[in-house]
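Notebook B, p. 112. Complex prediction, attempt 2.
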Amino acid sequence: MTNCNRKTDIYQLTAIFERGVAEIINETELKELMNSGRTLNLKQGFDPSAPDIHLGHVVGLRKLRQFQELGHKVILIVGDWTARIGDPSGQSATRPMLSRDEIQVNAQTYLEQFFKVVDKDKTEIRWQSEWFDKFNLDRIIGLTNKFTIAQLLAREDFHKRYASGNPISLTEMLYPLLQAYDSVVIQADVEFGGVDQKFNCLLGRELQKIMGQPPQQLFLVPLLVGTDGSQKMSKSLSNYIGIEESPQEMYGKTMSIPDTLIINYFELATNVPNEEIFQTKEQLNNSSVNPMEIKKRLAREIVTQFHSKESANEAEEHFIKVFQKRESPQEIPKYFFSSRHIGDEVYQIDIAPVLVKEGIVRSNGELKRLLAHNAIELNGSKISSTIINARHGSVLRIGKRNFVRIATKVD
RNA sequence: GGAGGGGUGCCGGAGUGGUUAAUCGGAGCAGUCUGUAAAAUUGCCGCCCGGAAGGGCUACGUAGGUUCGAAUCCUACCCCCUCCA
């Protein structure tokens, strides 16, 4: 190994262990493993019931990527069996069973997004069904008798639910066991996950020991707080930034995070070097720069990562134009409205049917509420009725962010 | 097998015969302010008709029943929780 490479290694190691880490079990052992020169099996599981990846997931995926760059191999487990159980960390216990086809489709979608961050060439994909399809009662008993109820109840989520009298199904108890068994099958060296996965991952470690394997190391990343600024990013709370979203959406959602989260996002979701982040922190602390400007930088970084620099710049222009200067955006979707020509290129139009039918507003009632709140503009001026006089090409703005260009259609 | 408690809107949680589309909190949406930040403040928050006043429909686990009238009473069923065995 040349000196040059060594330096890179040290630099990378620092990045790996000092940023975007919640907890490592056991750090010393992990470092020894990494020094052993062996290609490590990095385990990452995913549940094909929720195929969309958002920035919260990216925190962990970026870690995987960093490890890959050191030459290690990711083994992605498609949890086609655990998906049927549903991760108990959600409140609702039972989920509908997914069909084979649905799982296939979800897995496909997931993979496309997954490889936007993780290196495809250094990834192996394994399906739980490879081993669990063959499981019989004998094996299930063999697995379950290795653990006690008390052990499983130690999991915070189970514990809380039990204490507050909420149901826990036996099947759910199986979830951590299956996940643990995956580690045994693939002989995982390190399992990656959010801190909320700690219990499940630890169980894998436990089971490996019982089965005579060296226990896997745990690399737990922090949970990214969502755009609402209070809860962890998740699709069901709709406080997420999906990596498949348009540059404009991504940019806008980033701008909507609370200022207090800016540094956190820089650290967890971007490659901006530590020194720069440190400077940024200073600027925020002594108020020498408007936090908005810093957030714009963050938004550009994020959009660039999943789209391109150009898209990021365009998204920023759009943002400034539409939200800061309150002008109409460049591109506005056009809809045809039944119109009655009342002379001089002016048409009388009832906008309600189209807006409701196209789902731009939820219902007629909703539309009336918006009108009552002065939330609808025609070419920049508020309107108070769904019956309007407009020209072909006039622009409607509904709420903050919905724009509609009117195309007239005389019946 | 026995005893008791409970199932309400996106979530939590009131409500025990009419004044209840259902108190309150959270979430959400919109207005003002503004940096799609925070804070503040106002309004909305089942669907349909109506400019409005108002009217109609659907809804409190499911299906029936009593009643002029039921989320509230009765019957059966389904589901959940706790304790005893």
